Structures are given as C-alpha cells and as structure tokens.
C-alpha cells in the first residue's frame, strides 16, 4: 500500500513497535552486554563493580586446555553428524517415498524423536547407557558380557555415546526435508531410466542424489550449525564429564559461568560461540547462493 | 519381490533402532524398580500405573506440566500478536525504513542463546527478576521473533493488495485492515509459526536453568531433571515422568503432522 502523510506512516510504524521493544530489550541489549561482559570481570554478585580487563578473558579461554578439548569434541561431533545424519535420512526418505504399505507409520516413528525435549531424550538414553542399564543387560543376554561398561563414564566411549544420541535424535528432521525434496523429482525421469534398464542403485546415485544436491547441501549446512549449538544432551547425560572430556563450547561456557563463577571467561566463550555460528551461517549462505547461481 | 524384502528389512531394522529406546522407556514406566533390572526386556508382570500417579502427584510433574502449558501458551500468543503486527508493517507498505527493519529483525537468527546467558543473568539479578515467568516468556518471545517475523512477512507479501485497498476506500482504519483483513488471511502461516514456537518453549531448558529456581515455577523439561536429580533411583516413576514430558510434543505432532512437515520442508525453520 502507498501511504502519503507522515502521520499515517507513524501510525503504521506503531504496529512494529511492540515487537521492536521486546526484541531490543531482551535480545539486542543482552547481545551488546555479551560483548561488554567478555572484556570485564564480574564476580557474579548482584551489583558488584565490573572491572575492565581487556582481552584477558579471551586469552584465558584460548590457554585453557578444556576449551581445546571442547573444540575438538565439537569438530568430532560435526564430522560424525554430517557423516551419518543426511545419508541415513536420505535412505529413509527414499524408502518412505516408495509409499510401501505402512510408510506413514514408519515416517512417524523416525520423525518423533526430533520434536521431543532433548532433556527427556538425554535422560532416556542415560538410563540405557548407565552401568546397570539395558544396553549392558542386552550385551549380557547375547553373550557379549565382556563388552559391557559404563558407557557414559568411560572416557573412551562417553563422547561417542553422546554423538550417537545426537544422530539418533536428528535423523528424522532431515528425512522430512529430503522427503519433500524427493516429491519434486518428476516420475518420468525415473521411468525413462527404467526403460534404459537402470537398477535401483543406479537410479539412486545417478538421479536421486544429483537432483537433490541443493537440498542435501542445505541439510548438511543446517546440521553443522545445529550441532555447534548442542547443549541439553551433554548437560543431561554427562555434565561434560568424565574430567571435562565431553564438553562442547556451549556446555563449557555454562559451567565456567554458572558453576565456577568465571563470568568473564563464560562471556568470552559465549562470544566465541557466536562467532563460530556466525561464520558458519555466513559461509553456508554464500555456498548456497553460489549453488543457486550455478544452476 | 526381492527388492520389497530388502526394503522391509531396512525400514523395520531402522524402526527398531528408533522405537526400541522409546518402547523400553514406556514399558519400564509400568514396572517396579527390581523388575526393570531383573527382566529389562519383558513386559511388566503387573502394570504399575501407580508410577504415573507418583510422578504426577508426589514428584510434582503436574505442577511442572501446567507451568509449561502456561509458559508455552503465553509465548505463542504474545509472539502471534506482536510478530503479525510487525510483519504487517514490513510486508504491506513500502517504506524505506522497512528494509533496514527487516534486516534488523533478522539479526536475532544469528545469536545463540548461550552468547547472552551472562548478561541476561546479570540483568535478571539487577532488576530482581529471579523466578519471574514474565521475563522468561519475553526472553522466549525475543528469541523467536526473528523466525516468526521472517515467515509471516514472507506469507503476508503474497496476499493480494486489492482487498485492503477496497477496505481503505471504505474508510477502514489501519488497525481494522490489520485485524479484519490481513490477520484472518494469515491464519495458516500464524498457526505454523505457533506450533514451532510452542515446541521451542516447551523443550527449552537454558533460560529457566538460569533463573527459575523456585520449584513451583519450573517448566516441565527442567522439572524432569529436578526429579531425576532428587529421586534418581525411583526408576519406574522417573520413566513415567519422561513419558509425561514427551506426551505433549507427541500429541502436537500427531495433530499437526502435515503443518509441521511442510513447515520444515519450506526450509523456514531454524534448529
């Protein structure tokens, strides 16, 4: 609509005012605060004076062995999530898309974990992984009792267990997205390939994967950014233990600030998480844009 | 035929991977403590529904449950109102400032909750907002505004202008145009956004973890952790509490399956 008078413009602008006020007070101001808090020291006591320390908090973060461990964990988690999420999701989507008897039921089963609170999921798996939990009972039952261990306590399996649960809890999400992509591939393409005698495997690699490439890329990029923000699972399953070996930057940030009262270091970590997420988002946007241009 | 068999073996094997842990939780929620460990994979000898009563009454799950309903609904309603109003400005008028405003609202997408935890806890302390549910809801609103406004603006831009122009000719005020024309036509998009906002608020623990420590005010995801921390060895009732916690998202999904899936597919949803 075209509006002429300034009075009308002001009236219309009023509509965005409530959103703007909430947004600024509860998101923009805290964000600026985050930058500020990362260069001061605060002891966590209400009203205590804030002491300017420059980049000291950041230096402390990068010197901290725990931070390097958390970064390493983050990369491992991203790597394995990308390796398993989208490929498994794609296979499931292709299977569902054949519209076999009962496909709707199966879709629901694969998808539901993705909408459950991760605290509940983490707790659910915690009881499976615990020393006297059902995974060890199962191993005992099938005669592999010597494999049994405290999966989340043992430093060699704890991170792997968390990565597994994160994959388990996310596959359905990417499946639904890929499934929507599959429906856009015209049936004739497959029919033509069938006439030429293409096998199911050939059709998958020569038609499905290339046609879905933009959506597959999107899934992978969303996966990377989402994995960086994982928090609840670790908070519930291991609390970053044993010995801080399963921390991600997100959990480390939380424990530094709210368990050890290192608010400066916690803030610096928060800003570092922001930068990681920002770089990944901008990077993925530009990859997607380049993809679109190429097509 | 052979293909069919491979297909079924695959989908059933995968389904077991997904359903088995959930089924185990459900079955265990009806067992006694001893039974969970002595025969973890069999059906309960007797169905101990009292586990649910214990979780619901004694472990306060009823309280947490109602808190979460209240918190999530308030978040959804406030978001629907303020984001649809802002989207009205952004989508239906071509002001120069709109471009800037749209971009400004988009910024929030890039800000992880973790980044603001320390300043938020400082502000909460300074303004004495500890255990204040209004502050919690407004934080949820602020962090979901970007997504809601993005989706609604995109949707509203597609609404034909002739209707509101006719209304304007008839002397309708801008509020009437928003309320009588644009809002009703945006119901499909608003409902999609609301479902995701509801789930987001229901599933979040990060903000309540920070400043809701009064047990009577905790939302369900946090209350569940509370329960497992305090009475971690009452496995039956704990499993029942897990089932109670995931029940609402499950029902929401089953009711709005199509909307959730098409919403995700539209690529409009952030994690």
Structure explained in plain terms:
- The complex is a heterodimer of chains A (295) and B (271).
- Chain A has helices at residues 6-14, 17-37, 56-63, 65-97, 103-111, 118-129, 134-141, 158-168, 171-182, 187-195, 200-228, 232-237, 249-258, 263-294; strands at 40-41, 51-52.
- A two-stranded antiparallel sheet of chain A has the order 1-2.
- Chain A is mostly helical and 295 residues long.
- The model of chain A has no long low-confidence stretch (mean pLDDT 90).
- In chain A, helix 4 runs parallel beside helix 8.
- The longest helix of chain A has 33 residues, at 65-97.
- Chain A has one domain (58-294): MetI-like fold (Orthogonal Bundle).
- Chain A starts with 5 loop residues before the first helix and ends with a helix.
- With 271 residues, chain B is mainly alpha-helical.
- Chain B has a domain at 57-218 and 247-265: MetI-like (MetI-like fold, Orthogonal Bundle).
- Chain B is built from 14 helices and no strands.
- Chain B is globular.
- At the A-B interface, helix 1, helix 2, helix 4, helix 5 and helix 6 of A face helix 1, helix 4, helix 5, helix 6 and helix 7 of B.
Strand order of the largest sheet of chain A: 1-2
Total of helices of chain A: 14
Largest sheet of chain B: none
Pairing-aware structural class of the strands and helices of chain A?
mainly alpha
Number of strands of chain B: 0
Name the CATH superfamily classification of chain A: MetI-like
CATH architecture descriptor text of one domain in chain B? Orthogonal Bundle
Assign an overall shape of chain B.
globular
Q: Provide the structure class of chain B.
A: mainly alpha
Output the CATH class name of chain A. Answer: Mainly Alpha
The biggest sheet of chain A amounts to: 2 strands, antiparallel
Question: What is the general shape of chain A?
Answer: globular
Mean pLDDT of chain B: 90
Largest interface: A-B, 97 and 98 residues
Ends apart, CA distance between termini of chain A: 34 Å
């Amino acid at each position: 609509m075209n509006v002429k008078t300034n009075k009308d413009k002001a009236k219309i602008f009023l509509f965005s005012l409530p959103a703007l006020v909430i947004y600024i007070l509860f998101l923009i101001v805290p964000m600026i605060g985050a930058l500020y808090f990362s260069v001061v020291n605060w002891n966590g006591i209400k009203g205590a004076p804030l002491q300017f320390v420059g980049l000291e908090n950041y230096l402390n973060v990068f010197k901290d062995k725990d931070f390097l461990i958390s970064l390493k964990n983050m990369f491992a988690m991203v790597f394995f999530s990308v390796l398993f999420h989208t490929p498994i999701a794609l296979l499931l989507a292709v299977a569902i898309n054949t519209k076999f008897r009962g496909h709707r039921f199966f879709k629901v089963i694969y998808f539901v974990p993705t909408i459950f609170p991760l605290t509940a999921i983490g707790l659910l798996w915690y009881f499976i992984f615990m020393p006297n939990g059902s995974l060890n009972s199962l191993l005992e039952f099938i005669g592999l009792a010597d494999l049994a261990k405290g999966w989340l306590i043992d430093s060699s399996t704890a991170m792997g267990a968390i990565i597994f649960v994160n994959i388990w809890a996310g596959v359905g999400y990417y499946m639904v997205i890929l499934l929507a992509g599959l429906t856009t591939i015209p049936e004739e393409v497959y029919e033509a390939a069938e006439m030429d005698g293409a096998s199911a495997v050939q059709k998958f690699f020569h038609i499905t994967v290339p046609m879905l490439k933009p959506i597959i890329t999107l899934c992978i990029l969303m996966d990377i950014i989402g994995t960086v923000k994982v928090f609840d699972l670790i908070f519930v399953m291991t609390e970053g233990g044993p010995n801080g070996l399963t921390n991600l930057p997100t959990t480390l940030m939380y424990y530094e600030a709210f368990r050890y009262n290192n608010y400066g270091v916690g803030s610096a970590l928060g800003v570092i998480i922001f930068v990681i997420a920002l770089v990944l988002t901008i990077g993925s946007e530009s990859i997607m844009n380049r993809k679109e241009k190429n097509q | 035929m052979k293909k069919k068999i491979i297909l079924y073996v695959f989908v059933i094997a995968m389904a077991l991977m997904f359903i088995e842990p959930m089924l185990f939780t459900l079955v265990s929620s009806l067992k006694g403590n001893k039974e969970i460990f002595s025969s973890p994979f069999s059906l309960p000898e007797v169905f101990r529904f009292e586990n649910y009563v214990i979780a619901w009454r004694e472990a306060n799950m009823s309280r947490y449950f109602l808190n979460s309903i209240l918190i999530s609904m308030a978040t959804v309603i406030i978001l629907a109102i303020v984001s649809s109003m802002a989207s009205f400005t952004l989508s239906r008028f071509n002001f120069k400032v709109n471009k800037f405003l749209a971009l400004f609202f988009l910024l929030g997408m890039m800000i992880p909750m973790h980044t603001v935890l320390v300043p938020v806890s400082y502000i909460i302390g300074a303004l004495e907002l500890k255990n204040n549910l209004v502050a919690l809801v407004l934080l949820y609103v602020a962090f979901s505004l970007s997504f809601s406004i993005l989706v609604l603006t995109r949707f509203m831009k597609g609404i034909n202008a002739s209707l509101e122009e006719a209304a304007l000719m008839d002397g309708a005020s801008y509020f009437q145009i928003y309320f009588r024309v644009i809002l009703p036509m945006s119901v499909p998009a608003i409902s999609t956004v609301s479902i995701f906002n509801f789930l987001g608020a229901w599933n979040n623990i990060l903000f309540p973890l920070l400043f809701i420590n009064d047990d009577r005010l905790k939302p369900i995801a946090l209350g569940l952790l509370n329960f497992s921390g305090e009475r971690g060895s009452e496995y039956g009732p704990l499993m029942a509490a897990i089932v109670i916690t995931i029940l609402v998202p499950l029902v929401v999904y089953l009711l709005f399956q199509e909307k959730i899936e098409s919403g995700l597919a539209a690529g409009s949803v952030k994690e």
